[in-house]
Known about the structure:
- The structure holds 2 protein chains of 2 kinds.
- The termini of chain A are far apart.
- In chain A, a hairpin with a 6-residue loop joins strand 9 and strand 10.
- Helix content of chain A is about 0%, strand content about 50%.
- Chain A is mainly beta.
- By secondary structure, chain B is mainly β.
- Chain B is built from no helices and 11 strands.
- Helices cover about 0% and strands about 50% of the residues of chain B.
- Chain B starts with a strand and ends with a strand.
- In chain B, strands 2, 4, 5, 6, 9, 10 and 11 form a 7-stranded mixed sheet that branches.
- Chain B has strands at about 5, 10, 20-25, 35-40, 45-50, 60, 70-75, 80-85, 90-100, 110, 115-120.
- Chain B is globular.
- The interface between A and B is medium-sized, with 25 and 24 residues.
Amino acid sequence: EIVLTQSPGTLSLSPGERATLSCRASQSVSNTYLAWYQQRPGQAPRLLIYGASSRATGIPDRFSSSGSGTDFTLTISRLEPEDFAVYYCQQYGSSPWTFGQGTKVEIK
Amino acid sequence: EVQLLESGGGLVQPGGSLRLSCAASVFTFSNYAMSWVRQAPGKGLEWVSVISGSGDTISYADSVKGRFTISRDNSKNTLHLQMSSLRADDTAVYYCARGHGSSPRSPLDDWGHGTLVTVSS
């Protein structure tokens, strides 16, 4: 099983600042089958990024992602109030699919 | 807009069984892989199971293998999760989610609102 470790656990930032979230895999993720999700309190998760760097439909371009192999990064260029949430990475290349434990982006 | 509506959650005793359903609409159900993902209270996401669009490829998390069975009825646009030998650590909100395509190797494009399963005596 591929274990995904996200860091930091919590990121305290102000609106307008840049957020950089990390996701590290215990083994190489096949064909960049890596996705990022956002979950706001009380809501279901929402797909942000898939294939390591492709934005899902309707996702603003302030969200970007990069990486391959075992190291992946989600960047939010300028935080908007609605971006304060929990973010999860997920690999879907090797069964069982797995999620990271999440990074909470909170208002400083 | 894609609609996924979960049902079947509730309170069940340890060792008991429960069957979850997910009614899908506004898309061609058989063209998409479907997954179940759960979230224990206050915890992160845990992938549970996936089934391909045709139903011929299935995979499970180790934590539920042998206890849970995923299935789909493409004629009724419905996804199911049969859960047995339930344990306290199965307590969670269970989400139904649609894959990006028919292959199980798909990110999860759309999610239902979830149904709560509580395992307790």
